[in-house]
């Protein structure tokens, strides 16, 4: 249910941003709000406290965000609070930011390799992704996992390309197990 709320409210905020041509503005504000929500754990505790009435929580949110972000964003946070979905503010903002990236055709790629790639190799991977996807740019996240033995794993959204040696060895092992059972 929680994921549904984040998706529903995130879509609503995204639709508002597109309709009012405020995609860039609300994207910046959502990033700022998300940073505050993640860094200020006391705020979450305060907003979740059952003995603090909603009117007081409204005043707290307004005192923190009013004048720093647009009235649209403040109103959105107050709406989440009013509808008892303030606990979903972080996933909602994350979902909204992901929607904006899709809208702007910015892909997010997670590349895991067995050894550190050179800058030239990183650029080559990014160029190949740009050539084979519909994205205009990529946010590239590179990591190293020696357990892969060789090759790489690339994840873009819900798509995964696993060309690691570890994966190929596991597949081969499974195939050999099937042969022994037959």
From TrEMBL:
It is found in: Cell membrane; Membrane. GO terms for cellular component: plasma membrane; proton-transporting ATP synthase complex. It comes from the Bacteria. It is a peripheral membrane protein. One of its GO terms (molecular function) is proton-transporting ATP synthase activity, rotational mechanism. Keywords: ATP synthesis, Cell membrane, CF(1), Coiled coil, Hydrogen ion transport, Ion transport, Membrane, Transport. Belongs to the ATPase delta chain family. This is ATP synthase subunit delta. It comes from Diplocloster agilis. The gene is atpH.
